[in-house]
Amino acid sequence: MNKSIYASIALVAVSLGLMIAFQYRTTSSVEQGVPYGREQELTAEKIQLEKDLEHLQEESADLSAKLDEAGKGQSEAARAIKSELSKIKLYAGLIPVEGPGVEVSLENLSDPKQGGSAELYTIKDDDLLRVINELRGAGAEAIAINNQRILATSEVRLAGSHIVVNMVKLSPPYKVAAIGNATTLKSSLEIKGGLAEFLGDLGITVKVNARDNILIPAFTGGLRFDYAKTTQRG
175 phi and psi, to 5 degrees? Predict the structure, then answer.
Protein backbone atom coordinates (compact mmCIF):
# COMPACT_ATOMS: atom_id res chain seq x y z
CA MET A 1 0.00 0.00 0.00
CA ASN A 2 1.18 3.48 -0.63
CA LYS A 3 1.34 6.25 1.90
CA SER A 4 -1.88 7.93 0.75
CA ILE A 5 -3.92 4.83 1.53
CA TYR A 6 -2.38 4.59 5.02
CA ALA A 7 -3.10 8.24 5.59
CA SER A 8 -6.74 7.80 4.58
CA ILE A 9 -7.19 4.81 6.86
CA ALA A 10 -5.61 6.71 9.76
CA LEU A 11 -7.87 9.72 9.16
CA VAL A 12 -10.96 7.54 9.15
CA ALA A 13 -9.85 5.77 12.33
CA VAL A 14 -9.23 9.07 14.12
CA SER A 15 -12.63 10.41 12.99
CA LEU A 16 -14.41 7.30 14.25
CA GLY A 17 -12.57 7.57 17.57
CA LEU A 18 -13.56 11.18 18.02
CA MET A 19 -17.23 10.44 17.16
CA ILE A 20 -17.34 7.57 19.65
CA ALA A 21 -15.74 9.69 22.36
CA PHE A 22 -18.19 12.57 21.71
CA GLN A 23 -21.18 10.24 21.78
CA TYR A 24 -19.98 8.77 25.10
CA ARG A 25 -19.61 12.21 26.69
CA THR A 26 -23.03 13.33 25.48
CA THR A 27 -24.68 10.21 26.85
CA SER A 28 -22.90 10.64 30.14
CA SER A 29 -24.10 14.25 30.40
CA VAL A 30 -27.70 13.21 29.78
CA GLU A 31 -27.47 10.45 32.33
CA GLN A 32 -25.95 12.75 34.91
CA GLY A 33 -28.72 15.41 34.32
CA VAL A 34 -28.58 19.07 35.35
CA PRO A 35 -25.96 19.95 37.94
CA TYR A 36 -27.40 20.22 41.47
CA GLY A 37 -26.64 23.94 41.82
CA ARG A 38 -28.32 24.75 38.54
CA GLU A 39 -31.32 22.62 39.49
CA GLN A 40 -31.83 24.63 42.68
CA GLU A 41 -31.56 27.86 40.72
CA LEU A 42 -34.14 26.74 38.17
CA THR A 43 -36.46 25.52 40.95
CA ALA A 44 -36.25 28.92 42.67
CA GLU A 45 -36.99 30.68 39.37
CA LYS A 46 -39.99 28.40 38.80
CA ILE A 47 -41.38 29.14 42.27
CA GLN A 48 -40.95 32.90 41.70
CA LEU A 49 -42.63 32.71 38.30
CA GLU A 50 -45.55 30.82 39.84
CA LYS A 51 -45.87 33.52 42.52
CA ASP A 52 -45.74 36.26 39.86
CA LEU A 53 -48.37 34.45 37.81
CA GLU A 54 -50.63 34.09 40.85
CA HIS A 55 -50.19 37.80 41.64
CA LEU A 56 -51.04 38.79 38.05
CA GLN A 57 -54.12 36.57 38.11
CA GLU A 58 -55.27 38.27 41.32
CA GLU A 59 -54.72 41.71 39.77
CA SER A 60 -56.60 40.63 36.66
CA ALA A 61 -59.56 39.42 38.74
CA ASP A 62 -59.53 42.67 40.77
CA LEU A 63 -59.45 44.83 37.65
CA SER A 64 -62.25 42.79 36.06
CA ALA A 65 -64.38 43.29 39.19
CA LYS A 66 -63.68 47.03 39.18
CA LEU A 67 -64.52 47.20 35.47
CA ASP A 68 -67.83 45.42 36.11
CA GLU A 69 -68.60 47.86 38.94
CA ALA A 70 -67.74 50.80 36.71
CA GLY A 71 -70.03 49.39 34.03
CA LYS A 72 -72.85 49.03 36.55
CA GLY A 73 -72.22 52.57 37.78
CA GLN A 74 -72.38 53.96 34.24
CA SER A 75 -75.56 52.00 33.57
CA GLU A 76 -77.19 53.31 36.74
CA ALA A 77 -76.05 56.85 35.93
CA ALA A 78 -77.48 56.54 32.42
CA ARG A 79 -80.81 55.32 33.81
CA ALA A 80 -80.88 58.18 36.33
CA ILE A 81 -80.16 60.75 33.62
CA LYS A 82 -82.81 59.23 31.35
CA SER A 83 -85.36 59.28 34.16
CA GLU A 84 -84.54 62.90 35.01
CA LEU A 85 -84.75 63.89 31.34
CA SER A 86 -88.18 62.27 31.09
CA LYS A 87 -89.33 64.26 34.13
CA ILE A 88 -88.04 67.50 32.64
CA LYS A 89 -89.79 66.78 29.32
CA LEU A 90 -92.97 65.94 31.21
CA TYR A 91 -92.93 69.19 33.21
CA ALA A 92 -91.97 71.18 30.12
CA GLY A 93 -94.86 69.74 28.10
CA LEU A 94 -92.56 68.21 25.48
CA ILE A 95 -94.11 64.74 25.60
CA PRO A 96 -97.77 63.69 25.18
CA VAL A 97 -99.67 62.79 28.33
CA GLU A 98 -102.97 61.17 29.20
CA GLY A 99 -105.19 60.83 32.20
CA PRO A 100 -108.58 61.78 33.66
CA GLY A 101 -109.87 65.31 33.33
CA VAL A 102 -112.39 67.50 31.55
CA GLU A 103 -113.18 68.73 28.07
CA VAL A 104 -114.56 72.25 27.84
CA SER A 105 -116.31 73.28 24.63
CA LEU A 106 -116.80 76.98 23.90
CA GLU A 107 -118.88 78.10 20.91
CA ASN A 108 -120.42 81.35 19.73
CA LEU A 109 -124.19 81.57 19.67
CA SER A 110 -125.50 81.32 16.12
CA ASP A 111 -128.24 83.84 16.90
CA PRO A 112 -127.09 86.73 19.18
CA LYS A 113 -129.60 88.24 21.55
CA GLN A 114 -132.05 90.60 19.91
CA GLY A 115 -130.68 94.10 19.67
CA GLY A 116 -127.24 93.07 20.95
CA SER A 117 -123.95 93.53 19.21
CA ALA A 118 -122.42 90.48 17.49
CA GLU A 119 -119.05 91.53 18.90
CA LEU A 120 -120.38 90.90 22.41
CA TYR A 121 -121.06 87.24 21.62
CA THR A 122 -117.76 86.44 19.94
CA ILE A 123 -115.29 84.35 21.92
CA LYS A 124 -112.16 86.35 22.55
CA ASP A 125 -108.66 85.50 23.68
CA ASP A 126 -109.50 86.84 27.17
CA ASP A 127 -112.27 84.26 27.47
CA LEU A 128 -109.89 81.37 26.72
CA LEU A 129 -107.33 82.81 29.12
CA ARG A 130 -109.99 82.90 31.86
CA VAL A 131 -110.72 79.21 31.24
CA ILE A 132 -107.01 78.33 31.29
CA ASN A 133 -106.40 80.22 34.52
CA GLU A 134 -109.47 78.70 36.18
CA LEU A 135 -108.35 75.18 35.25
CA ARG A 136 -104.81 75.83 36.43
CA GLY A 137 -106.11 77.20 39.69
CA ALA A 138 -108.15 74.01 40.14
CA GLY A 139 -105.04 71.85 39.74
CA ALA A 140 -104.91 71.01 36.01
CA GLU A 141 -101.58 69.36 35.21
CA ALA A 142 -101.76 69.69 31.41
CA ILE A 143 -103.94 71.83 29.15
CA ALA A 144 -104.48 72.07 25.39
CA ILE A 145 -106.72 74.20 23.19
CA ASN A 146 -107.74 72.52 19.93
CA ASN A 147 -104.75 70.17 20.37
CA GLN A 148 -102.32 73.03 20.96
CA ARG A 149 -100.41 72.34 24.19
CA ILE A 150 -100.42 75.28 26.58
CA LEU A 151 -97.09 76.10 28.20
CA ALA A 152 -95.97 78.98 30.36
CA THR A 153 -94.56 80.58 27.18
CA SER A 154 -97.65 79.97 25.02
CA GLU A 155 -99.34 83.03 23.60
CA VAL A 156 -103.13 83.23 23.34
CA ARG A 157 -104.09 86.32 21.37
CA LEU A 158 -106.78 87.57 19.05
CA ALA A 159 -105.86 87.99 15.38
CA GLY A 160 -108.83 89.17 13.32
CA SER A 161 -111.57 86.56 13.48
CA HIS A 162 -109.15 83.91 14.79
CA ILE A 163 -107.40 83.26 18.05
CA VAL A 164 -103.72 82.43 17.70
CA VAL A 165 -102.21 79.85 20.05
CA ASN A 166 -98.55 78.87 19.69
CA MET A 167 -98.47 80.78 16.38
CA VAL A 168 -101.33 78.61 15.04
CA LYS A 169 -104.65 80.14 14.02
CA LEU A 170 -107.63 78.48 15.71
CA SER A 171 -111.32 78.82 14.89
CA PRO A 172 -114.40 78.11 17.00
CA PRO A 173 -115.63 75.92 18.45
CA TYR A 174 -112.74 75.94 20.91
CA LYS A 175 -112.16 72.75 22.83
CA VAL A 176 -110.08 73.05 25.97
CA ALA A 177 -108.79 69.74 27.33
CA ALA A 178 -107.33 69.52 30.83
CA ILE A 179 -105.90 66.60 32.83
CA GLY A 180 -106.46 66.55 36.57
CA ASN A 181 -109.10 65.66 39.11
CA ALA A 182 -112.18 65.64 36.86
CA THR A 183 -114.64 66.38 39.66
CA THR A 184 -112.63 69.33 40.96
CA LEU A 185 -112.01 70.79 37.51
CA LYS A 186 -115.67 70.50 36.49
CA SER A 187 -116.91 72.01 39.75
CA SER A 188 -114.52 74.96 39.51
CA LEU A 189 -116.06 75.95 36.16
CA GLU A 190 -119.70 75.18 36.88
CA ILE A 191 -119.93 76.54 40.42
CA LYS A 192 -122.82 78.98 40.85
CA GLY A 193 -121.68 82.41 39.75
CA GLY A 194 -118.58 80.82 38.26
CA LEU A 195 -116.89 81.14 34.90
CA ALA A 196 -119.29 78.98 32.89
CA GLU A 197 -122.22 81.10 34.08
CA PHE A 198 -120.29 84.31 33.39
CA LEU A 199 -119.46 83.26 29.81
CA GLY A 200 -123.04 82.07 29.28
CA ASP A 201 -124.26 85.55 30.19
CA LEU A 202 -122.00 86.87 27.43
CA GLY A 203 -123.75 84.64 24.92
CA ILE A 204 -121.10 81.91 24.76
CA THR A 205 -122.20 78.29 24.86
CA VAL A 206 -120.09 76.44 27.43
CA LYS A 207 -120.18 72.66 27.89
CA VAL A 208 -118.03 70.89 30.47
CA ASN A 209 -117.68 67.10 30.28
CA ALA A 210 -115.70 64.90 32.65
CA ARG A 211 -113.64 62.17 30.98
CA ASP A 212 -111.95 59.07 32.36
CA ASN A 213 -109.07 59.48 29.93
CA ILE A 214 -107.91 62.45 27.91
CA LEU A 215 -104.94 62.53 25.55
CA ILE A 216 -103.06 65.81 25.38
CA PRO A 217 -100.35 66.12 22.70
CA ALA A 218 -96.84 67.39 23.23
CA PHE A 219 -95.85 70.97 22.48
CA THR A 220 -94.56 71.09 18.91
CA GLY A 221 -93.58 74.73 18.58
CA GLY A 222 -90.12 76.21 18.83
CA LEU A 223 -88.43 77.11 22.10
CA ARG A 224 -85.73 79.76 22.12
CA PHE A 225 -84.29 82.33 24.47
CA ASP A 226 -82.65 85.32 22.81
CA TYR A 227 -82.06 87.39 25.92
CA ALA A 228 -82.46 85.15 28.97
CA LYS A 229 -79.23 83.42 29.97
CA THR A 230 -78.45 80.98 32.74
CA THR A 231 -77.07 82.72 35.78
CA GLN A 232 -73.48 82.08 36.86
CA ARG A 233 -74.15 82.90 40.52
CA GLY A 234 -74.04 80.10 43.04
Answer: -115, 115
Alpha carbon distance 77, 72 (integer Å): 8
Range of the domain at 205: 98-216
Give start and end residues of each alpha helix (H) in the chain: 3-32, 36-92, 125-137, 182-190, 195-201
- Number of structural domains (the chain) is 1
Provide block-wise average pLDDT over 10 residues at a time, the chain (234 residues).
52 53 47 57 75 76 78 76 83 91 88 50 88 95 96 88 90 94 96 92 92 94 78 68
Residues 129-160: b if buried by 16+ CB within 10 A, e if exposed:
eebbebbeebebbbbbbbebbbbeebebeeee
- Check which CATH number belongs to the domain holding 145 and give it: 3.30.70.1880
